[in-house]
Amino acid sequence: MSKYKLFLLRHGEGAWNKENRFCSWVDQKLSKDGVKEAQDCGRLLKEQGYKFDLVFTSILSRSIQTAWLVLEAMGQEWVPVVKSWRLNERHYGSLIGLNRAEMALQHGEEKVKLWRRSYDITPPPIDESHPYFLEIYNDRRYTTCDVPKENLPRAESLKEVLDRLLPYWGSTVVPEIRKGRTVLISAHGNSCRALLKYLEGISDKDIASVTLPTGIPVLLELDENLKPVKPRQLLGDQAKIQAAIRKVEDQGKAKPST
């Protein structure tokens, strides 16, 4: 029997999503389409009668902006929003800023798919010569993290995303769910995939085929042990959702950028 409802949401399309670039920890605002996705998501959730008690986001603007727009569309702007770097997107290391399709042309689609989708393969780490190194590590938001800045990741596999996410899930999110509060996690493709892997017991191999499009809410109904009682539900027009999933999967295919 379902006791709790948990909603996961990959943020609306960001500027670098539109350009098919690895965004990762570089801070980006939503694109015009991403704003609409977040607003449409909020309207859908309102129409279906959902109400949130608490929202968790990463400390990246596209995650926070999505949460604000969803709550505004629902008429629930007063709902508290709690932010943590532990819900950040996966750190893609030296791949940050690069175009996925161009990388597929250069390294092959299979290599890029391993970097993007595998569970335990870490991309090449970022170093101080990288054009976005200082933009990330000199950002004031990381001086307030719960680990020293020098211990923050320089690249992550999906496994490492889960490793840094789980302590926050257990200490901060779970107690709120157990109080009976309906929680929305407005985060990123990989932080949401990592949490899905944990909650649904998805195998290391099968997680590679789990795709979350931007701006589509995912409903998990959980029992008293926070185990799913039915398959996850991607809410909205199912034909549009499948088209959006195919679009995300095609991002890593070899085609010249335009």
UniProtKB/TrEMBL annotation:
<dbReference type="GO" id="GO:0006096">
    <property type="term" value="P:glycolytic process"/>
</dbReference>
<protein>
    <recommendedName>
        <fullName>Phosphoglycerate mutase</fullName>
        <ecNumber>5.4.2.11</ecNumber>
        <ecNumber>5.4.2.4</ecNumber>
    </recommendedName>
</protein>
<dbReference type="InterPro" id="IPR029033">
    <property type="entry name" value="His_PPase_superfam"/>
</dbReference>
<comment type="function">
    <text>Plays a major role in regulating hemoglobin oxygen affinity by controlling the levels of its allosteric effector 2,3-bisphosphoglycerate (2,3-BPG). Also exhibits mutase (EC 5.4.2.11) activity.</text>
</comment>
<dbReference type="GO" id="GO:0004082">
    <property type="term" value="F:bisphosphoglycerate mutase activity"/>
</dbReference>
<dbReference type="InterPro" id="IPR013078">
    <property type="entry name" value="His_Pase_superF_clade-1"/>
</dbReference>
<feature type="active site" description="Tele-phosphohistidine intermediate">
    <location>
        <position position="11"/>
    </location>
</feature>
<feature type="site" description="Transition state stabilizer">
    <location>
        <position position="188"/>
    </location>
</feature>
<dbReference type="GO" id="GO:0004619">
    <property type="term" value="F:phosphoglycerate mutase activity"/>
</dbReference>
<feature type="binding site">
    <location>
        <begin position="89"/>
        <end position="92"/>
    </location>
    <ligand>
        <name>substrate</name>
    </ligand>
</feature>
<dbReference type="InterPro" id="IPR005952">
    <property type="entry name" value="Phosphogly_mut1"/>
</dbReference>
<dbReference type="InterPro" id="IPR001345">
    <property type="entry name" value="PG/BPGM_mutase_AS"/>
</dbReference>
<feature type="binding site">
    <location>
        <begin position="10"/>
        <end position="17"/>
    </location>
    <ligand>
        <name>substrate</name>
    </ligand>
</feature>
<feature type="active site" description="Proton donor/acceptor">
    <location>
        <position position="89"/>
    </location>
</feature>
<comment type="similarity">
    <text>Belongs to the phosphoglycerate mutase family. BPG-dependent PGAM subfamily.</text>
</comment>
<feature type="binding site">
    <location>
        <begin position="189"/>
        <end position="190"/>
    </location>
    <ligand>
        <name>substrate</name>
    </ligand>
</feature>
<keyword id="KW-0324">Glycolysis</keyword>
<keyword id="KW-0413">Isomerase</keyword>
<feature type="binding site">
    <location>
        <begin position="116"/>
        <end position="117"/>
    </location>
    <ligand>
        <name>substrate</name>
    </ligand>
</feature>
<feature type="binding site">
    <location>
        <position position="62"/>
    </location>
    <ligand>
        <name>substrate</name>
    </ligand>
</feature>
<dbReference type="Pfam" id="PF00300">
    <property type="entry name" value="His_Phos_1"/>
</dbReference>
